[in-house]
Fold this protein.
Amino acid sequence: FIFASYFWTFSEAVSSYPLCIARCSGGSAEMDMEAKIQKAIDFKLEGHRCYKEKKFREAIGKYHRALLQLKAEEQRNAVESTEIECYDSLTACLLQSELVNYERVKEYCLKVLSHQRDHFKAMYRAGIAFYHLGDYECALRYLREAKNREPTDTNVLRYIQLTEMKMSKYGQRESVKENPANP
């Protein structure tokens, strides 16, 4: 079973990626990565042992297995990175559309933020989406977090001001305090 899993094609890895993300949520992706690295180290050590025992054919197999463990992790990282970049670029394009689908912008920004909590553009664009969807408290939360990352960004400052004006106009209480500990 373990041996067969090393020979996934890239398309199989990509197609199973959403399932992996679902399984790996909550920090277990990091544990999975550590486990793969540990397996690679174990295979490498077995390869060294085989080499010393002059079992070169076995050593070659162990070294290849170690490399495959690391390669699978590289592919997963490449898929995740590409996915984040695509969602980020999609939100930029959607915001330039004649009729902006703010629900979709929000959805894509939240996907980016689920992978990279400190992604400035996703925070800013999520704030814009929530603003236009009328959820001013969420908008303010994301915009203030974006401001913490880029304190002088004039677009962020302008949307914070617009959001605060909407909140005061509609009498919404401001439960989100300007506090870095409360993003």
Notes: The radius of gyration is 23 Å.
